[in-house]
Structure to design on (917 residues):
């Protein structure tokens, strides 16, 4: 009998406590089975870095997975790492660093937004929220890097899908379905994640430019060029001063485009791209690897919104629509920046109420996008829909929810009423 | 070929064939409902030609509304439906059932929109994979996933099977290159998952549908990402004195931080067979041969090719050739892509397996296959998408000899079980279909399978959409068939495979 099995067999659950902090899968199974039997809803937490995202909901008990952690298996040459879901992202990144590897989807660190300092959360939380960083358009989202998982469904049954190999079409791809499900379908226990080598060099072209229209034009051209960029953002004038670096003394609006890869190739592509974009020396700064990494880390961490009091929206839309949407949203007091080469707007609103929110939602919907309310004032949060959904998809979501969690005990109502 | 158990035939439906045909002719143009045996025969099988079954009827809808109405009608009248794209699948996913309406999507064959600004193409599902690239290549773009049958396979079928290809190591499979789909569920509901934006909110139904093998919905529209074509593409052809050396070379290339666009290995048997067949200039004296391809900017490709050279030499490479032109590069691939017909020359029949394994287990698995080959006294040739661990052994046998066929099936099942045992998967890219259905319990336990079946029931409560596929019917791990080719005659002999 292994150590864990020994521990597991000794479990006896004290169900009177309100917060469970399991260290073994056996305990989690026991907790879920009891909740299933007694119809008790559970709030599921990792390191609470993103637990304020989502609707408020009532739950009698909390399942805190922060002690269910550890790296189970890391095979750099096979390009995967298998971890327990409560493992801090920081620990995983630290381990990958030793082999010069990375999680290419560079997930956002919401700690700066919610608590003024870094809290990148647990890997289970990262997968459950599926918020990917600036490389999104090149490498995909978090869900594209999940090779397989093990989880506990709402009846307390241990289920798995996928595995540790990249090519696998055996059965439904449930790894996709649980990614971004905000803990409403299954309690993730183990995750197998694809890892990739870190690029040898990263350089960033900073174009001094305050105009969104021009910025989107630069980004569109860059993303359609064979120079293969891996990041593209636009910060308006009011955020320029947040990015003063050794090689960047300009403090106004800027467009940034990242190029990564082998050093000589990066230099070649940086030169080519600046020519293709017709840039003059005086409107251009180029950040070396170190500064480039700082710049993109600040972007990933949403540091321009550090300790923002309230009202941050995440707007995903086809990049062709971004200009028009921003122009319409300027009717409100808005501060924003653009990521994903034009396909993502992070927007803060000083004044936000139900009426304004509904206008914003209509605008974005008309332009084939959707909105997630990341941080909003409590009274608005109580009355507004945090996530967007249409009636047909709601009906399908309800059925899928029931197929995993028939008694709705996992994070009930966190995404939508009734789910 | 051993008989294959399919869901129980509904005699009530069989007896109502004429009535159902009549009803369907009221829903769609009557000439698009086929009912006489001569018309049905072309639909009796897909790329897994060993299994044949005539459907009850064939319908060929022309609009989404028609698809929706047909499905609603079939759902209300408890008629099974099997969707079909181009019919090139290798696992029997669109093999008809005796009492089914086969929904042939062939009339959905138009590209709807090419959107360079958002770098995507919106298309109907029966447009071929390659036609998408053809539609955008004048502006230097392409669609990345390239299953070898891309000249004929449909994009809707690619979505249903989550097709891969030789370049999926760097660019991912279908699921990583999709932005949205329009789907009709069995109850007739029409909905869209995703669109032109990079993400969609809520549960990832796009991800769920991709690779669901036609069990959850009928795909009526697909939006795919397109990429700018790389500036330079070069390939290296490397010979090795042993399969271990080749395997180690693959592991070292990955460990060095190089991600090639494609990395293929063939064993000596297949190298010789394909070289004889296509005169590709392969090192036929080598025990293993590797094709490794890099794409990107000139400097980048040069740097990676140089690194590959060093790594190959360190791993005892016996020969190394770098492509000097695009023609030469394509010649390197020509042999590899002709693996099917080349094997057809060697034996009356062969079966193609599709296991997935950790890269580091290559030598171990190939040694096991070679041991099994001796045990069953059947020759085998191996092709391998080495970069992403996808193995395609071709077992040679004689279908006219029942004992040879039985041994071949056992041999195939043993290989797949071994793939699972070393941490791999039953299928890397061909899908489960009817072919590996009964082996699912090698990879999953009852609870895992039950969870998947519960999802199926949630969306198709009467289990009418493509039943009898993917999930075990026998509830035991029977050893069923593989892609079986007799006398080199596949359904589409000219299409490159895997």
């Amino acid at each position: 009998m292994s150590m864990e099995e020994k521990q597991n067999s000794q479990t006896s659950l004290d169900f009177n406590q309100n917060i469970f902090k399991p260290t073994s899968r056996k305990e989690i199974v026991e907790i879920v089975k009891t909740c299933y039997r007694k119809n008790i809803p559970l709030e599921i937490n990792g390191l609470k870095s993103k637990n304020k995202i989502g609707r408020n909901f009532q739950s009698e008990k909390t399942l805190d997975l922060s002690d269910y952690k550890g790296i189970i298996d890391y095979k750099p040459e096979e390009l995967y790492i298998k971890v327990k879901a409560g493992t801090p992202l920081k620990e995983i990144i630290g381990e990958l660093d030793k082999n010069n590897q990375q999680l290419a989807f560079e997930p956002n660190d919401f700690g700066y937004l919610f608590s003024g300092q870094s809290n990148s959360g647990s890997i289970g939380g990262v997968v459950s929220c599926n918020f990917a960083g600036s490389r999104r358009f090149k490498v995909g989202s978090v869900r594209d890097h999940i090779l397989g998982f093990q989880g506990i469904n709402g009846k307390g049954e241990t289920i798995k899908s996928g595995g540790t190999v990249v090519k696998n079409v055996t059965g439904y791809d449930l790894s996709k379905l649980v990614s971004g499900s905000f803990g409403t379908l299954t309690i993730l226990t183990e995750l197998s994640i694809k890892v990739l080598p870190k690029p040898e060099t990263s350089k960033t072209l900073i174009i001094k430019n305050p105009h969104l229209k021009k910025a989107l034009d630069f980004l569109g051209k860059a993303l359609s060029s064979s120079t293969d960029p891996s990041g593209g953002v636009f910060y308006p004038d009011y955020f320029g001063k947040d990015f003063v670096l050794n090689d960047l003394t300009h403090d106004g609006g800027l467009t940034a485009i990242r190029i990564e890869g082998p050093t000589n190739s990066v230099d070649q592509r940086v030169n080519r791209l600046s020519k293709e974009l017709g840039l003059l020396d005086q409107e251009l700064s180029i950040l070396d690897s170190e500064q480039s990494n700082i710049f993109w880390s600040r972007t990933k961490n949403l540091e321009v919104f550090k300790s923002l009091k309230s009202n941050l929206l995440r707007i995903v839309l086809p990049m062709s629509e971004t200009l028009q949407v921003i122009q319409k949203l300027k009717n409100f007091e808005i501060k924003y920046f653009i990521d994903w080469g034009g396909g993502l707007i992070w927007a803060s609103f000083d004044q936000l109420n139900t009426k304004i929110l509904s206008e914003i939602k209509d605008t974005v919907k008309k332009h084939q996008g959707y909105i997630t309310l990341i941080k909003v004032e409590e009274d608005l949060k109580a009355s507004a829909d945090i996530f967007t959904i249409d009636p047909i998809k709601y009906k399908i979501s309800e059925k899928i929810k029931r197929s995993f969690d028939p008694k709705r005990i996992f994070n009930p109502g966190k995404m939508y009423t009734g789910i | 070929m051993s008989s294959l158990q399919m869901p129980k035939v509904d005699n009530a439906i069989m007896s109502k064939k004429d009535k159902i045909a009549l009803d369907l002719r009221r829903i769609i143009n009557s000439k698009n409902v086929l009912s006489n045996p001569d018309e049905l025969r072309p639909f009796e099988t897909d790329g897994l030609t060993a299994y044949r079954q005539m459907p009850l009827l064939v319908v060929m809808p022309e609009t989404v509304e028609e698809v929706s109405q047909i499905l609603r009608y079939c759902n209300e009248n408890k008629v099974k439906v099997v969707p079909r794209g181009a019919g090139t699948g290798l696992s029997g996913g669109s093999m008809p059932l005796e009492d089914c309406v086969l929904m042939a999507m062939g009339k959905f064959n138009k590209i709807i929109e090419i959107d360079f600004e958002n770098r995507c193409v919106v298309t109907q599902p029966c447009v071929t994979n390659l036609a998408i690239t053809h539609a955008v290549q004048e502006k230097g773009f392409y669609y990345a996933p390239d299953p070898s049958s891309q000249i004929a396979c449909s994009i809707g079928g690619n979505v249903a099977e989550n097709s891969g290809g030789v370049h999926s190591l760097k660019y991912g499979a279908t699921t990583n290159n999709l932005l949205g789909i329009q789907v009709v569920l069995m109850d007739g509901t029409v909905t869209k998952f995703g669109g032109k934006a990079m993400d969609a909110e809520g549960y990832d139904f796009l991800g769920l549908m991709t690779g669901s093998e036609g069990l959850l919905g009928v795909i009526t529209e697909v939006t795919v990402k397109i990429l700018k074509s790389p500036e330079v593409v070069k390939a290296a052809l490397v010979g090795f004195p042993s399969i271990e050396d080749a395997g180690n070379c693959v592991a070292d290339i990955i460990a060095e931080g190089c991600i090639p666009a494609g990395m293929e290995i063939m064993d000596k048997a297949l190298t010789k067979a394909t070289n004889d067949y296509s005169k590709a200039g392969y090192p036929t004296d080598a025990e293993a041969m590797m094709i490794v391809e890099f794409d990107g900017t000139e400097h980048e490709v040069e740097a990676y090719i140089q690194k590959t050279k060093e790594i190959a030499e360190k791993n005892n490479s016996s020969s190394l050739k770098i492509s000097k032109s695009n023609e030469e590069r394509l010649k390197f691939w020509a042999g590899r892509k002709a693996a099917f017909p080349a094997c057809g020359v060697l034996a009356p029949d062969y079966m193609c397996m599709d296991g997935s394994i950790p890269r580091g287990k290559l030598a171990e698995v190939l040694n096991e296959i070679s041991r099994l080959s001796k045990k069953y006294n059947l020759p085998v040739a191996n092709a391998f998408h080495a970069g992403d661990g996808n193995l395609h052994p071709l077992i040679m046998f004689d279908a006219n000899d029942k004992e040879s066929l039985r041994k071949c099936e056992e041999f195939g099942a043993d290989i797949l079980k071994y793939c699972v045992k070393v941490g791999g998967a039953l299928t890397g890219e061909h899908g489960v279909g009817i072919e590996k259905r009964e082996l699912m319990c090698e990879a999953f336990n009852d609870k895992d399978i039950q969870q998947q079946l519960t999802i199926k029931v949630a969306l198709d409560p009467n289990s009418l959409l493509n039943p009898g596929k993917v999930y075990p019917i026998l509830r035991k791990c029977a050893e069923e068939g593989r892609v079986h080719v007799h006398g080199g005659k596949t359904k589409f002999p000219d299409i490159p495979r895997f």
Remarks:
- Residues 25-38 of chain A form the longest helix (14 residues).
- Chain A has three domains: 1-198, 201-300, 303-383.
- The radius of gyration of chain A is 22 Å.
